Amino acid sequence: MKVAIVGSGRIGPRLACLVTAGEAPAGTEVVGWAPSGAAQTVPAWVGTLALPIANDPFALLAGADGIVVDLAADPHWHQREGLSEAACEGGKALLVDAPLADFAQVHDRIRVAASRSGSRILSVRPIRQRLAMRTGLGIALSDLGEVLAVYGSLHLPVRDPGPDPAPSFEQSLADLLDPVAALLRSPLVRLYAAGQAGVAVHAVGRTEGGVVVTLDVNRFLPPSCGSDGEALLEITGQDGFVRIAPDAADVTVAGPAGVRRIPWREDPLGDAVRAWLSGAADPVSDLDADRHAITALRMVKRSRALGKAVGPDGNPVASVAGAGSPSPAGP
Amino acid sequence: MKPLGVALIGCGGIAKSAHLPALAQLPDELRLLSVMDVNRAAAESTGQAFGVPATARLEEALDTPGVEAAIVTSPEFWHREAVLAAADRGLHILCEKPMASSLEDADAMIAAAREHSVYLMIGHSRRFTGRYRVLREAVLRGDIGEVRTVRENERRSRPAAPATGSYWSPTHWTGDPAHSVGAILTNGIHEADLFTWFLRDVPVSVYAESRVTRAGGRVPDFISFTVTYRNGGIGSSEVNNALPPGYPGFHAFELFGTDGMLSARDSEMRMLEFFGADGAMRDPAAYHHLLHVEEAYVEEHRAFVRSVREGVPLPVPPEEARLALAIGLAADASARSGQAEPVSLAPAKSVHEGGDHR
What we know:
Largest sheet of chain B: 9 strands, mixed
Distance between the termini of chain B: 21 Å
Radius of gyration of chain A: 20 Å
Number of strands of chain A: 13
Number of helices of chain B: 10
Mean pLDDT of chain B: 90
Radius of gyration of chain B: 20 Å
Helix content of chain A: 25-40%
Low-confidence stretches of chain B: 348-358
Strand content of chain B: 25-35%
Strand order of the largest sheet of chain A: 7-8-9-6-10-11
Order of helices and strands of chain A: EHEHEHEHEHEHEEEEEEEHH
Number of strands of chain B: 15
Largest interface: A-B, 57 and 55 residues
Oligomer: heterodimer
Shape of chain B: globular
Distance between the termini of chain A: 51 Å
Helix content of chain B: 25-40%
Number of helices of chain A: 8
Shape of chain A: globular
Strand order of the largest sheet of chain B: 14-13-12-11-7-10-9-8-15
Mean pLDDT of chain A: 87
Structural class of chain A: alpha/beta
């Protein structure tokens, strides 16, 4: 496949590694790279692959079979969506971070375009693709009975831990929303979010089915923690409780200099890239969940801005004055 | 100094599991002189076990010769009556949490204590638990800088066979909407108090979602709530009493500051962890820092006696307990209204200045 890459996110470096290591499928050729905007620094891996650099990312579409839209969600939503839609309209394969868009309507347009042209979309979901997360979600969907509550947290380091670019805070929040949306498959009817902008989100919400969702995302992990990030999902059902901590599997060395963690080596990004390049079906690709995650992400942003609980439309939920006790849940 | 003579008001679960065992470990500090419960059989059973007079009449217990203080362990909807009666007699009071079932009751209790110049301490026992004392001392030393967020998730299981009279059942007061608003005051009040204790700022608003998880249940046994503070700090908690039967109850505590992190996660057997600018420490052997140990209530009683006998500031002044109650009630209101609700702040200044427990 002839592949073009736009942007300087986390996917490009991984793809470049696969190509230079000879681990990409036979016939893979990276044909060009374009920056996400004006005056972007050219990543070192672009030079390593000796890629031609295009000023106009849309110009890359003509000569490629597939495009990697490697743009952070914020502030590049518009360009990310535009390129994704153009790629799908042109019948190109698309590899992009989840979620597809900032608005559900744009998400729907991209999917319709892909459906008409036969484009293959694969959205990267680094948390849901972890083995522990896939295993745990499967158990939660089959063994817990009615899901009552979900708690999800993602703790990220204060500073970037390694050479690969760290995702934006909004992208990290989207990464955590993805497995939650995949589990619940039900829209949120209201959500409240608070926290320091760009650094922390504490959100509590409720789905149509009455499931209470609690989310914590922050960039507070100190360097002495020795961690690249810690995700956690805890799911309470009528018949059981599942705790999924993909980062708990590691070798930890604690000494006078601090704590060093040698994580269980998974490569969700690499797995996604390989699957896309080879045309294989992605075991976690789920664009319906993507749509719920988009709505949830918008609700978080609106609630934080307003300081109020909001509905799916982003407007404040009307306060129910003098309401009685919350309705009992039950069969 | 002679032991402080006390009347125990309420002979239910927390009295038997926590206060009476603590009393037994402090014979030089406290002496039980009478017990009372509206359930005469419960009172007589306790009185017989401890060799003290038992009664179903509050006045009789409080008027027992030698009684200098009351330990109130009844449900919170009865705290006001018991505390006002004790204060009216010049008795000092150690009262279980939550302080009351309404802010009006709490204010009346505080006013009565002031009027009669008696100590009123509320039993927020987590402040006396080893784990939280160690963490708080680290915060006060500045080990992690300014606290930005505090989270404690509290998980407990349902009984295997819900029995009449078990927690949250409709025949128990915790499950009766006439007397209980559910998890937020029954156990979430601990978190409401800890947030302010660690963040050391003024709570502004609360958002909560709750639900009733038990079939036939009538009050929420689950609540998730977030408290925002004036300085931007956040306290969050999921209080979950819906885990499957037999699942061990556990707490997961995380505290992030500008310069580091403190955590204690029972489920991972990580009792105490500290990550700061100078390095990391993990104390995996600190099992004594688990909750539900007698030590906390012994320390709580000892601190109460110290205040009464020596005039040391109360480690849990009633105004701080009122603040925890205000957070809890705002959370309940939020869960009903579907919107964030403001925290009602007490305007009055404490006669008995509070301070840190040492």
